[in-house]
Design brief:
single chain, about 375 residues, alpha/beta, Rossmann fold, 6-stranded parallel beta sheet, 14 helices
C-alpha cells in the first residue's frame, strides 16, 4: 500500500453536471480507495448565469458520493482566500486542481499561490489547455495558473503540445483519460431499447453529450444523407447551439424517421440505458483534446466512430476499438458508418472496446499522485 497522504481536490463535484464533475468525483473515489485521506472542495458558483447557455448547471437527481464543501466562487476573490484556508486547515499536503477552461484560472491561480506559500504541493489535471472556442487572454490566464503547479497531468498528447506552446516545457506527464465506470454495467439491449422507445431490431447509432458546434452533429446528419444502409441515430444531450440548423438538415434530407433528438441532459442513472441500446457511438468532432464519451463507450463495450482530430486518435485504435475518419467530411463518415454492416466487424470492434476498458484504469491514472 502507498503511504497515506492528505490530498485536496479542487473542482466541480456533483450535483454539478457534466464530464468534469463526473471525473472529479471518480478521481476522489480512486484516491480514497487507494487509502488516501481526500478533502474535496467544490464550487459555490461555477458559471455566472449570464455565461451559461444551458437550462441548469446542476442535476437535481444526482446522488453525490462524497462530501465536498461548496466554497469556491469563480468570480468572488474573497472565496479564493477561503478556499486556500480551508485546504490548509485540513492539513492537505498536495492539492489537485481540475483545469478545463481559462475562465477559472484567476481563481485557481490565487488559491494555488496561497497554497504554495503554505508549503502545499500543487498539481493540475488538464482536460483542455485551451478552450475549443476562441477566447481572449486564454493562453495568458491558463499559463498564469499552471505556472504555480509542481506537477501537471495532460489527458492527451494534444493537450501536452498546447501546454508546451504556452511555455510550460517541464513537469508535464501525459496520462490518458481513464474509463468512466461509475454508471453501472451494460444492460440487456432489447430492454434498453424498449425503455427508450426504440425498435428492438436494426442498427442504432448514438451521439451522446452536450451539443456544441465543434462536436459536429451537422456533419453527422449530412453523413446520414449519404449512407447506403438504414440506421437509426439517437442524439442524446442538451443542445447549447445549432438545434435549428439540425432540424433544417433533418427536414432537407428526409431524416425524420431515422433521427431521434433527445434534447435534455442525460442524468447518470440513464447513461447505461443509452449506451446499452447502441451498436456504436459516433463523435464527428471538428476539434477535440480527449473525450470522456469514448471512455464511457469503452466501459460498456461499445465501439466508436470518431474524427481524426486532437487526442481522439490517441484513444481509439483504428480497426481495433473503432474507426477513425477524416474530419468535416460527411461522405467519409457515411462510408465508415456503412462499414459497420460488414460481417464480423462490429463484434470485433466491441471486443476491442472491452479490452480498452482494462487499459485505461483509475489505478494506473492516480499512481503518480501516490508516489511523487
Amino acid at each position: 500500500m502507498p503511504e497515506t497522504q492528505r490530498i485536496g481536490i479542487v473542482g466541480p463535484y456533483p450535483p454539478y453536471r457534466g464530464g468534469i464533475a463526473q471525473f472529479t468525483e471518480r478521481m476522489h473515489r480512486a484516491l480514497d480507495e487507494a487509502g488516501q485521506r481526500v478533502t474535496g472542495v467544490s464550487f459555490r458558483r461555477l458559471y455566472p448565469s449570464l455565461f451559461f447557455p444551458g437550462a441548469s448547471q446542476e442535476d437535481a437527481g444526482a446522488n453525490p458520493r462524497f462530501e465536498a464543501p461548496r466554497v469556491l466562487d469563480s468570480i468572488n476573490p474573497l472565496s479564493w482566500r477561503r478556499t486556500a484556508r480551508h485546504l490548509v486547515d485540513a492539513g492537505v499536503e498536495r492539492a489537485i486542481f481540475m483545469h478545463w477552461m481559462p475562465f477559472f484560472a484567476p481563481a485557481y491561480a490565487s488559491v494555488a499561490e496561497r497554497l504554495g506559500r503554505a508549503g502545499v504541493s500543487v498539481s493540475a489535471v488538464v482536460h483542455n489547455a485551451l478552450p475549443h472556442e476562441r477566447q481572449p487572454l486564454a493562453r495568458t490566464l491558463s499559463r498564469r495558473f499552471l505556472q504555480h503547479c509542481d506537477y501537471i497531468v495532460a489527458l492527451s498528447e494534444t493537450v501536452r503540445r498546447d501546454l508546451v506552446s504556452m511555455g510550460l516545457h517541464d513537469k508535464i506527464d501525459v496520462r490518458p483519460h481513464p474509463t468512466y465506470d461509475q454508471f453501472g454495467g451494460r444492460t440487456d439491449r432489447r430492454a434498453a431499447r424498449q425503455a427508450l422507445g426504440l425498435p428492438p431490431q436494426g442498427r442504432v447509432l448514438l451521439f451522446f453529450g452536450l451539443v456544441r458546434r465543434y462536436k459536429g452533429v451537422d456533419i453527422l446528419l449530412e453523413a446520414m444523407a449519404h449512407m447506403h444502409t438504414e440506421v437509426l441515430l439517437v442524439v442524446a444531450g442538451e443542445w447549447y447551439e445549432d438545434r435549428a440548423e439540425a432540424e433544417a438538415l433533418i427536414e432537407q434530407h428526409g431524416l425524420a424517421e431515422r433521427v431521434r433528438l433527445v434534447d435534455r441532459y442525460i442524468p447518470d442513472a440513464d447513461v447505461a440505458t443509452y449506451f446499452s441500446a447502441a451498436d456504436a457511438v459516433v463523435q464527428p468532432y471538428r476539434q477535440a483534446t480527449q473525450s470522456g464519451v469514448v471512455q464511457t463507450a469503452f466501459h460498456f463495450g461499445v465501439p466508436v466512430v470518431v474524427s481524426g482530430v486532437g487526442g481522439l486518435p490517441e484513444m481509439v485504435g483504428h480497426e481495433v476499438e473503432g474507426l477513425i475518419v477524416a474530419p468535416e467530411d460527411p461522405a467519409a463518415l457515411a462510408a465508415a458508418l456503412d462499414r459497420l454492416e460488414e460481417p464480423g466487424l462490429l463484434p470485433r470492434l466491441a471486443e476491442g472496446a472491452l479490452a480498452a476498458r482494462e487499459r485505461y484504469t483509475w489505478e494506473h491514472f492516480i499512481h503518480p499522485f501516490l508516489s511523487r
